[in-house]
Amino acid sequence: MTMRQPDTIAPLAPYAHAPVLLLIIGLLMLQPLSTDLYLASLPSLASGFGAPAATVQLTLSMFVIGFGGAQLIVGPLSDRFGRRPVLIWGLSLYVVASLLCAAAPDITLLIVARFLQALGCCSGVIVARAIVRDAYPPADSVRVIARASSWISLAPLTGPILGSYLQVAFGWRAAFVALSVLSLLLLAAVVLRLPETNMHKNPRATDLSGLAQNYRLVLGSRQFWAHALPGALSFGSIFAFISGSSLVLIRVLGVPTEWFGYCFAIGVSGYLAGTIVCRRLLPLFGAAVTLRIGSTVSLAAGAVFLAAVGAGLAHWSVVVLSLFMTMGAHGVNFPVSQSGSVTPFPQQAGTAAGLMGALYMCVAFAVGSVVGASFDGTLYPLALVSCALGLAVFASVRLTATPLRVTQ
């Protein structure tokens, strides 16, 4: 049988005139750019505001809390009122919050503005995930996500490099100015080019009884947990590096700030490689086996990191190699996890995407808190967290496994 290549995938006829995939890619890029673009500035924020590392980590943790909590609201809102209006209001909030971040006079206001920024960012990501379900046939959704993920990897790949140079040249505020410009461009594109894709609006989606019914339906599905849980743990494994790599590389291993972005980008290139591998594995083995392969790489990444640190290899290359392997595993795990969590729920796509995203953010918040609180000037805490998460991803796939059939 001849396999249809991912590059030939097109949206359903009503959306063929709109740049749906390009908008999905841009919206999904907001989340990694919102964190990665200012990673190189974390040590500077600590010294500039005279705040401890744990307080500076709150600019990440509060973003995660806001992003995670909002998904429980944004998803149902888009199921009831449509994707377009929720997206427009959310991107507008993101623009304003990014400008507030850039103008923050102290760490407290920056943390508050980051929380507001997360609320706006959430609308872009959640609605983009729901649009995939709306605008593409169910059999194509996992391949659409894998294809988009290959392009999305450019954000964590180039974001830290750009952020490092912005930090050296202009200071930490420049990163948030750049984010406000990007979100303004996305807002204009949505207003001008994106049609409404929700053809099954549910007027009861935001009613308490309707919410409860939809939540029971999604949370009671074994297929949802078989994909959302491994995906959340896999996201937690990369968030450990997002929250801890700048402190480890710059403070512990002495990597210059302007070189941090390159180190992080080398590691993040594993995500691009992982998404490409995922696109090759899906037609050959199917989604279930692909997820098993990705989870095995997750376990190997964490084990290699801890073993290297235990052997006394305190070098930047150890961190970069471990990040590369962890990102590669997530590049395989994420497309399968996202598609498998949302595809079974055509009437509740926003709710399912919101619950999946909230689970991702809960795990990320817990991981970020542990990494920030356990930082002791060595590589051991980050290595221990990474290994534990790799084991958790591997175990969750085996314990919750249920086949996901993808029609070729």
UniProtKB/TrEMBL annotation:
Domain Major facilitator superfamily (MFS) profile stretches: 20-408
Record keyword Membrane present: yes
Gene3D superfamilies: Multidrug resistance protein D (1.20.1720.10)
CDD domains named among the record's database cross-references: MFS_MdfA_MDR_like (cd17320)
Localization per Swiss-Prot or TrEMBL: Cell inner membrane; Cell membrane
Signal peptide location: none
Coiled coil: none
Residues annotated as transmembrane: 12-33, 53-74, 86-105, 111-132, 144-166, 172-194, 232-253, 259-277, 353-373, 379-401
Topology in membrane: Multi-pass membrane protein
Keywords from the named record: Cell inner membrane, Cell membrane, Membrane, Transmembrane, Transmembrane helix, Transport
The keyword Cell inner membrane belongs to this UniProt entry's keyword annotation: yes
Similarity comment: family membership: Belongs to the major facilitator superfamily. Bcr/CmlA family.
Protein name as annotated: Bcr/CflA family efflux transporter
Taxonomic classification: Bacteria, Pseudomonadati, Pseudomonadota, Betaproteobacteria, Burkholderiales
